[in-house]
Amino acid sequence: MKLIVTCLILLLISCFPAYGSERATKPHFTPPHRVQYGLASWYGEREQGRQMACGEPFNEYAMVAAHRTLPLGTTVRVTNLRNGRSVVVRIMDRGPRIADRAIDLSKAAAERLRFVNQGLTPVRISVLNLPGKHTREAEATRHSGRNYYEFASTADRPSRRAISC
After folding, report:
1. Residue 7, in any domain of the structure
2. Which domain holds residue 58?
3. Mean pLDDT across the chain
4. 88-105 pLDDT, tens digit each
């Protein structure tokens, strides 16, 4: 009798995923495709100088990221769900190459989110603006000073080279 009850309990438990496990392992966007939850990883030294999908050389110290589907040049806010820290990065490359990951961040972004040593962290990815479109939230982020960001515009920083993507 105990064996049957134990088997039924194990069967019921196996039918329901652990709380939050789907959020951390299966990237998905919520309507209207502005927020995604998934795992973030980072890439850096080995890729330094390699040409990104946008044509620019990769710089591990820039606030950039790789995403499979978002248009190149999209600005997103990435929030570490373990500690609440967030950064604003631009999608400049394609990836990640590992299926269960939602985004690859530059080493600089990973350092600001404080997960370099862990290698992976659950994140929320919020689209701030698509290439060529500016939203109020993106403008507010630019002027808030709360998060580090890097916009590839030469209008406010003539010494920086514009990113073409």
Report:
1. no
2. 19-144
3. 76
4. 999 999 999 898 999 999
Task: Quote the pTM value.
Answer: 0.64
In terms of phi and psi (left: phi > 0; alpha: psi -120 to 50; beta: otherwise), the region of 58 is beta
CATH of the domain at 57: 2.40.40.10
For 112-118, the CB contacts below 8 A with 24+ separation are 112/85, 112/87, 112/148, 113/40, 113/78, 113/80, 113/83, 113/85, 113/86, 113/87, 114/80, 114/83, 114/85, 115/40, 115/42, 115/80, 115/82, 116/42
- Domain count across the chain: 1
Quickly count: other Cβ atoms within 10 Å of residue 24's Cβ: 18
